[in-house]
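Protocol step 4 of 6: structure prediction from sequence.
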Amino acid sequence: MLEPPQWQVKPQFDLPDWFIQAVHQNAPEAVGDYAAQILWQRGIRDPAQLAGFINPNTYQPSNPFDFGPEMHRAIARLQQAYQQAEPVAIWGDFDADGITATAVLWDGLGQFFQPQQLTYYIPNRLADSHGLSTAGIDRLAAQGYSLIVTCDTGSTNLKEIDYALGLGIDIIVTDHHTLPADRPPVTAIINPRSLPADHPLAHLSGVAVAYKLVEALYQTLPTVPTHPLEDLLDLVAIGLIADLVELTGDCRYLAQRGIEQLQQHQKQLQPRRPGIARLLELCKKSGDRPTDISFGLGPRINAISRIYGDARFCVELLTSRDPARCHQLADETELANTRRKALQKEVARQVSAKLGELDLSTTSVIVLADPQWSVGVLGLVAGQIAQEYNRPTILLSTATHPPNAATPDEPLLARGSARSVNQIDLYQLIKPHEAILRSFGGHPFAAGLSLPVENIPLFAAAINRQLREQQAALLPVTTSIQADLVVTVEHLGKELFRTLKLLEPYGMGNPVPKLLVQNCWFEDVHHRNLKDRRGGKVSFIKTDFKIWDGSVSEGFPGVWWGHYKDDVPRGRCDAIVELDFNTYQTYHVRLIAVSAHEESQRVAASSVDWIVDWRNVDPIPVVAEDAVLQVTQCPSSWEELQIWFRRAIREQTKLAIAYSLPKMSSPTQVWQRLVGIAKYLSRTGQPATRLQFHDALDIGDRPLAVGMRCLKQFGFELTASEDGIQVRWHGSTQPNLSEPEMSQAIAQFLGAVQEEQFRYEYFCKVPLSTIQAVASYAAQLHHLPDDQSTKCA
């Protein structure tokens, strides 16, 4: 029932003059009608609504007591704790929204309670689940806490709430996750899901709900605080934008105000929050844009718990006023984010390999498990896989025993994350199967869960059956990539960027405008692996290019994250891009999607009918030897396929791409095998040809060349002869490298093997239409005169 994404261009309206004038009155810096067109498309058409959308000074935020009796109950209980000097515990969560919510309550309640009266508790991402736990409640009870205030969690922890009440602990829940059918027995539960869907507070994230609680306390006890409430807004903006909530109503207002606060940190000699200032410095951001959070601060804050599990020091990083301590914590955070990137890439590669064993034609929900996967990055990878394969995805790590297991006889436990696509509600999909789960909670599009390992096959079969039954009664779901504006390369640059920036912050409910550039092409294309701040290689790729069309005499710079240069098509294209500005003071585009230009697509469809796709087909169809050329070895570059394209064109015959994913060992195993072969050849005096090395190691020319260089650096002597390569090594030979250099040399070899394996996987699943488009370009070159063909190539 899922169809490939389609491109759509939003209607370009003939706007009324009064609306264009109203936009320019509120945003005099806007150039042309671009901003007006996008606002009208997104339903911002009322003059008062328009003013509040662009300028937060004209927006009237909601009163925190709009939450009704629940807010009154919460404030009454906090007043009682204040008057009686009770100790209060903040119970947070380990993602960016939960961390910033904890920081808001720590700083906000800290205006009313002495430091010795306050504490915060955050579960360990790698050992615990989201939400309250009896073990954590026991710990707080033993320390004498009689009131717990949750943030970004707690709504559905009914068993744990009952347990706390039995110990004489009151609970105030502030949360934004799914509500239970019946109100839990808490002192108060402040959750925007209890409000009408069109209420300005309806989409608050956990940090924003925590802020509203503190705001209500400020209104109730106005003479107590010594710091302004607005000092908390930078934290609110980070959590709001990192949690991907809909930026409408009060969410948008709070994000706008918070970004105003955030950008001040880089302008102050002594920043009020030195931890945030240092993080902005490390990620080379100024704090004036939402992308500084979504691509800078947010991933770094999340990386702490993804790598270390324990995220408590992140609250200290955000709230401490000690610059030296904050610098130390920020540097640790940066290193954790570097490790997170590499770990995410490796787990994604392993998941892709497992997907090759699935029959996706009968799979509605992808469910995969592995004992080696780190729980910390499974949500990120599940999101990637869900988008790439257009299916809800659940990834699980199988642990040895449940955390806090009473006996070793308890069943093995799997913990992981789920992500959804195409408006499929994960919460409603998983909830009917709670009986076979140990824990579960989350949003319609993101969830966390745990279950006994032995229940995984049953769970996977059940949710696949359920989704198939739901989809059987529905029309096919067609996803689309929507372009907001059609522009030429000439339009890209400073003026258009500043116009679109007036509509920030972008996010859910107000996405970054997507620009369609038609009949364009790419030049100066090259890719590189990113490096961390210590110069170490990170397994993350980006491709740089310049985009051209007929409107310019100079191309415009751009980047395509997660792609190699070979992924960039040749010839005329249509591209969907986002316009951006980086810390090096340059304007550029981020490539979102690309396809052959409509005219080229028609030519390709009519002319490239000579390619047959037999990839991953076993057995390969039997045909006469001269009836079709067969590519049976998986390529690792387009240049390898181009040789076959040219041969098929020259011989005027069909071409079958008939390869499968080659056998692949882990890069570490390949290195160990290479060293073992070198020692064997040295001991026996036998030579070996390059082909024998290729066959024994299952690698191509480039990683083999890197491996040979490594062997020389490690003290092996390699000599080429007519019979092959002679390898000699003597025990007295000392390596030519220091220990750190040896590690770096091995890392280069492992990276070369990993990159080649990634390319094999790419060419095993790249769409046939892409192969046809490249072949069509080769056919066009074949029919050009020699001098033109050379120039175009």
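Step 5 (inspection) to follow. The first strand starts at residue 2 and ends at 9.
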